Amino acid sequence: xxxxxxxxAAVNKIVDTFIVSDDRLIKIADQFxxxxxxxxDHQGATIAMIPSFVAGRCTGNEKGTFMxxxxxxxxxxxxxxxxxxxxxxxxxxxxxxxSEELKTGPMRNLCDFIADCVDSFLTENGTIDSNSTxxxxxxxxxxxxxxxxxxxxxKQWTKGFNCxxxxxxDVTILLxxxxxxxxxxxxxxxxxxxxxxxxxxxxxxxxxxxxxxIMGTGFNASYYEDMSKVKKWTGNTDQEMxxxxxxxxxDCERRVLPLTVYDNxxxxxxxxxxxxxxxxxxxxxxxxxxxxxxxxxxxxxxxLFNGESSKDLNKIWSFETAYMSTIEVDETKDLCDxxxxxxxxxxxxxxxxxxxxxxxxxxxxxxxxAARLASCHIAGVLKHTGKVGHExxxxxxxxxxxFYPNFxxxxxxxxxxxxxxxxxxxxxxxxxxxxxxxxxAIIAMIAAKN
Length: 450
Ligand code: ADP
Fold this sequence. Notes:
The protein has about 450 residues and is an alpha/beta fold.
């Protein structure tokens, strides 16, 4: 490399703080099991472990036509899904941009916007019989305490959303009111977490799927639980049900997660300070900002970019996680793609090869850590359910998992470090692209049947 001694020493020191040893992974997974069990025992635990009211397994033979909505990621998606049986389906969908103003304004405006999007989708795709009520599955990917398949109270906002008048309210009723006010003949049959939708969508084709995971803007997971093991559950215990873990909240007490000063700075400037710490170390929304904090420190110490930052790089959240992917795969001799991002996109006046190598090292450190930490919740679920060493399919959706270089491989290696090579070889991570629309339709169907 081209780093001088001071640079090398400083960079290595930062990279070291992002290393998670195998021992630490095992401790984190064990703590995860303890927190899962607390969440299953009583309300108000750190990981909420929310029963989804989705019971029983998919067969793939379900049929019918349903609508689905997906709110909680980068876009609002409106979908029209036909389940054909035999694991087959057709889907028509449209994306709508949710503005920052809507994300942080009154909840009523957001609901009216969603209702308007559904209305224009129905108008543009006018094949749906307007005389009968349309059954809709509402994927709402925030922590919701469900009381039935289509009732649930918002606990808190995450991922940059912060609408007023929503926390503590039933989000289905709020949206159903907007449909009613606008005379849109749609019934919200189910409220669905995106991880649960992803699990059900993948299970429609592969009934043996046991976990649904999202690794995109945010990070969360769900799995099948034997309800006789859930002390806080007062319903029928003679069944399996999907549990939405809300595991992004894991270890908010900071017992085991190896938070660095760069994480703490990002957390302090986020809109949900001290919350969702596990999510913040794994999910796409945050990795770039953690990396940016490390870069800025090196700039301030005159060890990077000749001590010169730029207006763009100084801006919080400006260093996107997608840049990290591009930088990590940059194998050009002079790291041209990295130079392009730093100089053309972020307007750093000039960078040396040493600078680019430093940036690449830091991206790698933050990216590898995210993947290794992400494996802990899967190890935790396998340990808790007694399935270590059994065949298991984990359906994963999200751009981070899909596009971040070596993410899957790094997760696999970490899982092997926790559970052993043999147990790791039985676990299959499958990319389940855009499953939440299909999944919500399947769940709407289950709800409409009951
Ligand atoms: P959702 O917002 O529904 O989770 P995605 O799964 O597409 O949608 O996730 C978007 C997030 O993924 C972005 O916030 C970004 O942080 C991250 N991301 C997007 N593209 C990439 C990429 N090429 N490499 C790594 N992360 C990416």
